[in-house]
Amino acid sequence: MTARIGVVTFPGSLDDRDTQRAIRLAGAEPVALWHKDKDLKQVDAVVLPGGFSYGDYLRAGAISRFSPVMESVVEQARAGLPVLGICNGFQVLTEAHLLPGAMLGNDHLHFICRDQKLRVENAGTAWTGDYTAGQEIHIPLKNMDGRFVADTYTLDELEAEGRVVFRYLDVNPNGSLRDIAGITNEAGNVVGLMPHPEHAVEPLIGSGRTDGLPFFTSILKKLVTA
Amino acid sequence: MSRTPLDTVEHAAATPDVELPWAELGLKKDEYERVVEILGRRPTGAELAMYSVMWSEHCSYKSSKVHLRQFGEKAPESDALLVGIGENAGVVDVGQGYAVTFKVESHNHPSYVEPYQGAATGVGGIVRDIIAMGARPVAVVDPLRFGAADHPDTKRVLPGVVAGIGGYGNCLGLPNIGGEVVFDACYQGNPLVNAGAIGVMRHEDIHLAKASGAGNQVILYGARTGGDGIGGASILASETFDDAKPSKRPAVQVGDPFQEKLLIECTLEAFREKLVVGIQDLGAAGLSCATSELASNGSGGMRVTLDDVPLRDSTLSPEEILMSESQERMCAVVEPGKVDRFLEICAKWDVIATVIGEVTDGDRLEIFWHGGKIVDVDPRTVAHDGPVYERPYARPDWQDVLQADDAGKLPRPATGEELKDQVLRLVGSPNQASKKWITSQYDHFVQGNTVLAQPEDSGMIRIDEESGLGVAIATDGNGRYAKLDPYTGAQLALAEAYRNVATTGARPLAVSDCLNFGSPEDSAVMWQFAEAVRGLADGCRQLGTPVTGGNVSLYNQTGEAAIHPTPVVAVLGVIDDVARRTPVAFQEEGQLLYLLGDTREEFGGSAWSQVVHDHLGGMPPKVDLERERLLAEILISASRDGMIDSAHDLSDGGLVQAVVESALLGGKGARLVVPDGLDAFTFLLSESAGRAVVAVPRSEEVRFNDMCGARGLPATRIGVVDGDAVEVQGEFTLSLAELRETHEQTIPSLLA
Question: Where is the signal peptide, in residue numbers (chain A) (predicted)?
Fold first, then answer.
């Protein structure tokens, strides 16, 4: 038995096919979801991939939030459906208020593409079970608007509840507060991060590491054993 | 608002004495007279608009055509070539049923005027050329040249160009895997922004720009047409309208990468459903180009109703609509029964699509506006029968003086300490320094198939996940070499790109080029151009790699000062299994370093002569294409059979530059010994062509040596991968930390 994991394609999604590949390599079945379609095709989990959803001319993720597919995603995520937002997907999750905080332009004002070192802070979410807390991994990062910000109260709350899932190590590539690279919601089913685990699933391709594969094996294991 | 009568064909025939502003539109007197002769009457304003843009240097290649013919005449026999010169881009067979299309184009002038949009729309244009062939774009590369790195204007142009390439390409989801960044004062005021793209398709999916089958519908889809990029057309507009309207329209187009991304997806979906008979992107000369090329390449004529073109600005005149270079538009020819489905796909992607005309069984291109016929021409006369010039060319007097100024006579470092200082200066000079600050602004991971990206010798993309089939591309050009000898310089660019592809383990298959030169009206420049084309055509014949297409950019000069002649050559290669690719970085300590090829005292045009002596003179390195072919065969075999773990091509900066790059990328140092018969300076800094440095695992040494020996390639053991420094025995030691600091700080400190 395997799990069916949906990948939403917005018109400007770029990493949707890569994410489908990563899901396949982990042993699960990828299911394509279309932004104009409310139907989530009874998938067991959803990934919002990277890209520029609707061009992001206004603000990254600002328009996607109102797309038909997101109505269903928000509703089901609140009911416990595991959702992973990568890069633009993370931006969409904050715009949709499934995750707190917001993303601003990188502090150096340039697009940045690099193989980024991270520390796994929380291995208890639906998407990080195959990591161990404190583990150091390398995942490619590429974005223009990756600076995570939130008010101090929210940041303290995230820290206190262990909801900071990933932190940047060595270099903070975009000025994110408290070096935060990824967070989760209170229930731990919704995770968003700026780096791209789907670009680190094959030894030969991209960064040449497979540090991102556990995202997809974690969710598969959780769904299959649940 | 008062308006003069619509300048229809009928009106033009009845008013032969009306003066048209042909000179303001860039036509010469004899060219205008030729238009009148072709039509048998004066052209209408709309016809004049079409002829003037299509007969421009940029669209008609009128100065370069007589020379470019050699690429066809001298083309080597190649089973790999599926579509050759003349289409939107050439297509090459890479095996397993896959075909690859690739091309390099220039967007030099717009990028100087408006760096961000100029560079962005350069990417957009080349990507549309690729989709117009039926392929999914899979990667882009960007060969760039700027003025002196420390010139204030470089700080205006470069960051804008880089942000534009990133801003557009990143949003399309195309990994940026290669290219170059070169600084030289000769490009001050004339930066070269070349953009290349690769696309992949199945053989049966190749599409061509032609309109066939009477009754087939012509569909314009993508962005609305606006007043951007019109240039001279507003002169005509002010002839036909006498009220005050915005006349100074921006001549540089503005890009919308999101729209282009939608265009890619909906075009590919239409291809998959086999809905498209012929297709053409709208680039330079916009609708004038698309309609006349589609019609002239097909079997019939075409009738277009210009009123149906969706506009961004309702005040545009028909001439302006025909000349507009608004971005992100394409034109498809679709059978009547398939139009509804085509429009449905466009609607799915929220792309505006409109039937603007149909293919007729005649042989005329007829365009209507407000019910009147404003164009009635034989489309071939617009698209293909433009003027052809035999521009005078002559070897300039100063060429001999330049070549006699031998770089071999420049003072060389006298001590190990002095050599070390010069090496350090070289490694930290803008041209040799790390370009990470630039390339990290480009996404090179997207699509999840990138095997190698800059600073590797070539970019490499996997195209089949099952078999591991992949393609590699490298672009190279050295204006300093070409200035010293354009024929040799062009061949050196070809040799370097060819070598770079082979160094990564791929077999070179085909060539595209972007020929950047000064004014063709200068006989010295024209000689440089003629020599470079001759050199490239001869070289391609010898290496068996046909030119599949390319681009010419002339008038790259300010006043009397032309840029160095700069032929940029892109070589495409194929690799059966990307798992066999060879990276630049040193992999393991203890591996043996071998120098392949012959090292001679060759310093003309070298990085050393530029950085240490600010000198350009003498002769460029000698070219031996048979040697290049042998070197490539050895590199490919060694990579396939696992005899080498890293390899790096030797070019500007010589051996030391290559070793430093491999060491820094791998985080492992090297101990080098100067081989017998060479002095340390020549060993480290000569730029002899046909060379590479490879790291051989000890277990493979005998086998590797036997192979080189049997095939007659000189292979000299020069050291070992070891430690955390680059040490040249008896000369100097430079720690990796110091080298890294020097190599990586230069560009950010100048430009960040």
Answer: none
Instruction: Give the E-state strand segments of B41-172 in sequence order.
Output: 81-83, 90-95, 98-106, 136-146
- Per-domain residue ranges for chain A? 4-225
- Give residue B236's pLDDT: 55
DSSP calls for B455-524: TSSSEEEE--TTT--EEEEEEE--HHHHHH-HHHHHHHHHHHHHHHHHHTTPEEEEEEEEEE-S-TTSHH
Chain A positions touching B442 (Cβ under 8 A) are: 111, 113
CA distance A194 to A147: 9
Q: Which phi and psi angles does B162 have, rounded to 5°? A: -65, -45
Judge whether A169 is closer than 8 Å to chain B, CB to CB.
no
How many CB atoms within 10 Å of residue A202? 21
Specify the pLDDT at position B248: 43
Closest CA to B131 of B39, B197, B33, B59: B197
Angle at B553 between CA B237 and CA B121, to 5 degrees: 65
B50-73 burial, b if ≥16 CB within 10 A, otherwise e? Answer: bbbbbbbbbbbbbbbeebbebbee
pLDDT of B384-403, one tens digit each? Answer: 888 999 999 999 999 999 99
Residues 6+ apart with CB under 8 A from B551: B103, B104, B105, B106, B194, B513, B514, B515
Q: Which of residues 7-36 of A touch B (CB under 8 A)?
A: 11-12, 14-15, 17-18, 21-22
Residues 549 through 578 of chain B touching chain A, CB cutoff 8 Å: 578
Sequential DSSP letters for B191-235: -EEEEEEEEEEEGGG---S---STTPEEEEEESPB-STT-TTHHH
* Cross-strand pairs, B100: B92, B200
* Yes or no, beta carbons of B578 and A204 under 8 Å apart: yes
Binding residues of B for Mg(2+): 105, 129, 281, 551
In which band, very low, low, confident or very high, does the pLDDT at B89 lie, cut at 50, 70 and 90?
confident
3-state SS of B696-733 is: ECHHHHHHHHHHHHHHCCCEEEEEEECCCEEEECCCEE
Chain centroid offset of residue B458 CA: 15
CATH for the stretch A4-225:
3.40.50.880
CB spacing of A11 vs B446 below 8 angstroms: no
Q: How many CB atoms lie within 10 A of CB B315?
A: 13
Pairing of strands B176-183, B136-146: parallel
Nearest CA in chain A to B460: A205
B349 interfaces chain A, CB cutoff of 8 Å: yes
- Amino acid identity of A53? S
The two three-digit tokens of residue B365, written as one number: 């291109």
Model confidence pLDDT, tens digit, residues B416-434: 999 999 999 999 999 999 9
Nearest partner of B125 among B328, B298, B365, judged by Cα:
B328
Q: Which residues of B touch A201 (CB under 8 A)?
A: 448
Q: How far apart are CA A52 and CA A12, in angstroms?
A: 5
Query: What pLDDT, in 10s, does the model give residues B480-533?
Result: 999 999 999 999 999 999 999 999 999 999 999 999 999 999 999 999 999 999
* Chain A interface includes B448 (CB < 8 A): yes
Q: pTM for the whole thing? A: 0.94
What is the H or E stretch that residue B339 is in? Answer: helix B339-348
Separation CA B565–CA B551 (nearest Å): 14
Q: Quick one: CA dihedral B226, B228, B233, B239, positive or negative? A: positive
Provide the shortest C-alpha distance from residue A226 to chain B (in Å).
30
Query: Which amino acid is residue B608, in one-letter code?
Result: W
CB pairs under 8 A between A and B: 89
> Class of B9-63+207-383 per CATH?
alpha beta
A144–B443 C-beta distance less than 8 A: no
Domain limits, chain B: 9-63+207-383
